[in-house]
Design goal:
Blueprint (H helix, E strand, L loop, with lengths): L12 H4 L4 H66 L5 H36 L9
Length: 136
């Protein structure tokens, strides 16, 4: 028991509370920090997903707008070919080919709009704003 002594019992403030009490307090602090880290990590992951969804939605909506423009052009071509067919200047297969192009373009436009809506639903699910119809 002395400051320069090499023999004896050395006591610290942690050991005054009981053997291992200091370690127990450190363990308690660690268990309270872990949930906070998990929550922080979950928030970061959710924010990352939200930004990803926002980017994908913007991309799909931009593509759908471009596709709508192409669909309108394809419709004009179809109308022109139909008028030319009616005047006897085009054959049926010419009109059919233009009609198939128009139909594919319409399908592409609808698909892009659907994908944008699907992404909005996934985003709403992530945000927790969807209601479960079976529980209503």
């Amino acid at each position: 028991m002395g400051e320069g002594s090499t023999f004896g019992l050395r006591l610290t403030t942690d050991s005054l509370l009981g053997l291992g009490t200091g370690d127990r307090l450190k363990a308690i602090e660690a268990t309270t920090e872990a949930p906070a880290r998990y929550v922080s990590q979950a928030n970061e992951d959710a924010n990352r997903k939200l930004r990803m969804y926002e980017g994908q939605i913007a991309s799909k909506e931009r593509q759908a707008a471009e596709s709508a423009s192409l669909t309108a052009q394809a419709k004009q071509n179809l109308d022109l070919f139909q008028a030319q067919y009616d005047a006897g200047q085009r054959q049926v297969m010419d009109v059919v080919g233009v009609y198939e192009t128009f139909a594919r373009q319409q399908e592409n436009e609808v698909t892009l709009k659907y994908e944008a809506i699907r992404l909005r639903i996934a985003m709403a699910e992530l945000l927790g704003v969807l209601a479960d119809g079976s529980e209503i």
